[in-house]
Amino acid sequence: MKREISMDTAELLYENWQGQFDTFSHMEFACAIPQSLFLISTLKENGLPNLCFHSWSCFGGDEGGYFAVMQNISHTSHTYENIVRDGEFCINFISADYYPNCIATIVDNSNDCDEFASGHFTPEKSVKVKVPHLKQAFMSLECQLACNVDLSRKGISSMIIGRVLHASIEEKYIEGVDLRYGQQGFMFNIHEPADFATGQLKDTHVAALEVLGSYPEMKNKPMK
Question: Residue 53 sits in which domain range?
């Protein structure tokens, strides 16, 4: 039997903090779809580096470009302010080993804070943008702002789309592709999945991929 969940079922769930279902749709927790976790680097107006631990994203494109599509960029955040002002940012993929470092950038994120320092990360000069990327990242994408859309039209958050201008990938992650898809590779967010039996939201979990097999029959198959 399937449970039917609509936009009218928020009353079946309990917020963990006041305003949680304003900041995030309750469907976020009802569906709890895993998504990659990464750090967005930008520069504050005073020139200090800013980091945002983020998920809610997808990546894709065609011959016209490759794009990073990021949802839920809060209008009250430094990250949103910096991207709108400067029109550029970097996306940094790191393994779950750095999860505590990422949390440290949330705890200490004042306007006068160097968030690379608060997270014990090392900045590296980017190729196409002024924003530095992370030395600790196994892959970094340098992006230029392409689109800023308030999908809900509530003035709460935006979908930010960045055109990827350049990628830096750690050599061993190119040569050993399996590294990207295990515990030392992409980190995933399982965001407070809802238990509809109790109405409670469970703890957020961090996950990594487990490769189950390959599909050689899909090689050289065009999309339809």
Answer: 33-208
